[in-house]
């Protein structure tokens, strides 16, 4: 369950609100599971290894209705790899200064992976990255998704892991290239890590070498001028066609 989900649980009250919360939490579980499926090739490296999606049943009161039994008294969750370490938000007090540059850049690179799988994350922030120190990376468990005999090298010895995907969105089958790339541009996912950490580390007298990739930045200009399909077509370089949805992969 995401941090956002746990916050929302604190306000449970009337049955309509409970129904809304149950529906929302189920939706977030489905979204997060879908992200792990799409990023299967990165499990055990840039994201945790996912072992299973589980349902844990709670004790049922005698008055529970069938809907309540299914949605309120059955907790959906994900069984995944445990990663000891610290969050990127605590980088300054948890890792040597010499490692800061590469650790942050690893996080930015992992954000860029999302676009390759037509995923947009509305909750990118330093708190949603775990950093495992070198002594933990020596454990072969982190390599569980590699081919036999294959190792995965982390430049600084620190492994950076992206987590918490419940607030992600996916490209819809009828979205044009222009619509999708503008959505990605407006979210500024890279800056939510790179720029924020650059400012934070500057307070420590450290100059982080970070520059946004610009992969979607061209779509931020002149948005008001896109009034018809012809302008949109020209802005997208003739690429504003519809795409088929990505085929889902197994966990």
UniProtKB/TrEMBL annotation:
InterPro entries: Kinase-like_dom_sf
Name this polypeptide is given: Protein kinase domain-containing protein
Upper classification of the organism: Eukaryota, Fungi, Dikarya, Ascomycota, Pezizomycotina
């Amino acid at each position: 369950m995401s941090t956002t989900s746990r916050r929302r649980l604190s306000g449970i009250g009337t049955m309509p609100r409970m129904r809304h919360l149950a529906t929302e939490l189920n939706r977030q579980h489905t979204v997060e599971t879908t992200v792990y499926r799409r990023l299967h090739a990165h499990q055990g490296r840039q994201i945790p290894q996912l072992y299973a999606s589980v349902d844990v049943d709670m004790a049922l009161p005698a008055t529970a209705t069938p809907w309540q039994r299914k949605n309120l008294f059955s907790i959906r969750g994900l069984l995944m790899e445990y990663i000891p370490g610290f969050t990127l938000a605590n980088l300054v007090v948890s890792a040597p200064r010499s490692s800061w540059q590469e650790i942050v850049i690893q996080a930015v690179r992992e954000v860029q992976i999302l676009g390759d799988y037509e995923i947009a994350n509305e909750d990118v922030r330093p708190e949603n990255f775990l950093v495992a120190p070198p002594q933990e990376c020596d454990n072969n468990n982190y390599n569980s998704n590699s081919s036999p005999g294959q190792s995965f090298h982390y430049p600084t010895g620190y492994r950076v892991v992206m987590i918490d995907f419940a607030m992600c969105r996916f490209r819809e089958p009828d979205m044009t290239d222009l619509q999708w790339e503008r959505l990605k541009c407006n979210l500024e996912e890279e800056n939510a890590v790179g720029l924020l950490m650059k400012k934070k580390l500057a307070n420590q007298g450290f100059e982080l070498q970070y520059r946004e990739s610009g992969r979607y930045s061209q779509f931020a200009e002149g948005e008001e001028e896109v009034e018809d399909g012809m302008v949109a077509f020209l802005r997208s370089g003739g690429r504003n066609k519809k795409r088929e949805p990505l085929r889902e992969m197994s966990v």
